[in-house]
Amino acid sequence: MQKTAAILAIGDELLSGRTRDANMHYLAGWLTERGVALTEARVVPDDAAMIGEALNALRTRYDYVFTSGGIGPTHDDITVDAIAAALGVKVIENPQAAAMVRAYYGGRGIDVTPARLRMARTPEGAELINNPVSGAPGVRIENIFVMAGVPRIFQAMLNAIEGAIEHGEVIHSCAATARNLPESMLADQLRDIQAALKGVTLGSYPIDGDEMGVTIVARSQNMAIADQAINAVAAAMRALGAEPEMEDRK
Amino acid sequence: MQKTAAILAIGDELLSGRTRDANMHYLAGWLTERGVALTEARVVPDDAAMIGEALNALRTRYDYVFTSGGIGPTHDDITVDAIAAALGVKVIENPQAAAMVRAYYGGRGIDVTPARLRMARTPEGAELINNPVSGAPGVRIENIFVMAGVPRIFQAMLNAIEGAIEHGEVIHSCAATARNLPESMLADQLRDIQAALKGVTLGSYPIDGDEMGVTIVARSQNMAIADQAINAVAAAMRALGAEPEMEDRK
Description:
The structure is a homodimer. By secondary structure, chain A is an alpha/beta fold. Chain A has two domains: 4-164, MoaB/Mog-like domain (Molybdenum Cofactor Biosythetic Enzyme, Chain A), CATH 3.40.980; 172-247, Alpha-Beta Plaits. The first copy, chain A, has helices spanning 12-15, 23-33, 48-59, 79-87, 95-106, 114-117, 151-160, 187-196, 223-239; strands spanning 4-10, 37-44, 64-68, 91-93, 121-123, 127-129, 138-141, 144-147, 172-178, 201-207, 210-220, 245-247. In chain A, β7 (138-141) and β8 (144-147) form a beta hairpin. The two termini of chain A are 20 Å apart. The model of chain A has no long low-confidence stretch (mean pLDDT 94). Chains A and B meet through α1, α2, β2, α6 and α7 of A and α1, α2, β2, α6 and α7 of B. β2 (37-44) of chain A pairs antiparallel with β2 of chain B. Chains A, B: This is Competence/damage-inducible protein A. Chains A, B: InterPro entries: CinA (IPR050101), FLAD1_M (IPR056596), MoaB/Mog-like_dom_sf (IPR036425), MoaB/Mog_dom (IPR001453).
């Protein structure tokens, strides 16, 4: 049985158009490689009520919830407080986190100010997620991983929690792309192939900027069935006069 | 009063890591330019129950809901059916949509197959959104705009609904970036500037790949106040020995 996961990306800048979120896409690939199904994503502003409501919806429904953003030292970093409020626990200055912040900044000859120590505040009962990039740790509490929004730090924190994620059966995927073949030409064949083969999902994706081409992706826990499906798709493409470009399965 | 909006991006490929969503970011900028506040985003798989539940949560809460994805001709395109089910209305073959599909394909000497006519199915009572790129229209019903997932078509459909969106006061933003200045050095000053100026929001964003630099963004409906805030931020940066790079307000 695959574990399920959700991501809650937090930040006004993601919704104003200033910043294009990168963490959802990265996490999606990372979880897929580990056989965990990313099943939902939400983006909310730096608003405690909205963060709390989304978190409570996601944490009860999925095995893992990852948040990104809002754990820095400035006034707009409210994620820790919002999450603690949603869980009904206090925020404390975590001694271990404070030691990590002191060690990081102290070791670089930088003052450990109250603003920096703000990054040592965690919900009571939380464990820490190591941050090798910039010192201030992330937080794990219950099934929630509270991580930084800066992509390089988000990715480093994912490495740090590798051991906490239970791997499942990996979904294999392989793809065939046909140029100059609109997806509607293949619709009937795809439906038939999907119906004939159990345990495979076919996705059909028009090529952006060239709506007369299409990529078909076959996904299955069984690599042989994914191969069988994509070979049937490729044959259907050839029967329509196209020469499919095959993508290695992974 | 600004109108609010949400986007519901639909597609297994967005959650598997195969495709990086581009429509949320584009829509965010497009709405910001028109003084509409994108307030929430969700991504769900091609699953009718999940689409319906998310849609019903968003459409009652925000003035506008935009969906992207799942309106093509193939078996995995279930968005129209899921939305109709969520609204409790029937799906019909829309005569006007069928005429558009026939005109587009017929005009190119391509057969109008049942699969292509699948793209003419709409919830009963829907209006159409013109698709100048590939013929098959989007759908507007109540406060919901059902649009294509392919970014070029999504963007063309946004142009087509320009007149249906009520513009509000635009939030102006301007920014100052300091290299080699960690955001925690500025935390107290930002808090003070934010407290002293009404009607402005300051956001603090570490620079990715260089966590010792930071961009501060001031947002306000009042351009003069945004300017005043960012000038105060720039002065605080200079007082710490940094030379801010200013970004033109928009």
